[in-house]
Write a structure and sequence with these properties.
Strand order of the largest sheet: 3-4-1-2-5-6
Number of helices: 3
Radius of gyration: 17 Å
Oligomer: single chain
Structural class: alpha+beta
Order of helices and strands: EEEEEHHEH
Low-confidence stretches: none
């Protein structure tokens, strides 16, 4: 099987420039991954950036190893996950005064869900426990 994306089924390292925390996320799909993700280290409010294996002193083969001790996984986002993200974003936007509370919630949620979901190729990060319960 020929893969479409070079980061398909690889360990993707992300490093936070603020706190230095490094997280390895398994890309469980033949799809692209984000350049940056939210740093998960407690107390850090920064974005962690994808770093290439050689920067982490890892060879290319390292990224092809089967995931062990991986806490999170990239999966293809479901419509339900996109809708949940859309609802959270709209709620936050209203709460922080970026959106008028009188908006048409149903229409706004629907449009934002479509934008987030795209053509069904968007990545979503899930915890290892959730991934393992769906695969096994």
């Amino acid at each position: 099987m020929k893969l479409k994306h070079s980061e398909a089924f690889r360990i993707m390292p992300y490093k936070c420039p603020k706190c230095g925390f490094v997280e390895y996320i398994w890309n469980s799909r033949d799809g692209l991954t984000p350049f940056s993700i939210k740093c998960i280290k407690k107390g850090c409010d920064s974005l962690a950036d994808h770093v290439f294996p050689h920067v982490m002193n890892k060879d290319e083969e390292f990224t092809r190893l089967a995931p062990r001790n991986i806490d999170r996984y990239f999966v293809t986002m479901s419509w339900r996950q996109a809708r949940s993200i859309a609802k959270d974003r709209i709620q936050n936007a209203v709460e922080y005064g970026y959106l008028d509370p009188q908006i048409d919630y149903v229409e706004t949620i629907e449009k934002l869900t479509e934008s987030i979901y795209g053509e069904g190729h968007a990545p979503c990060i899930i915890p290892a426990e959730q991934y393992k319960s769906t695969v096994h």
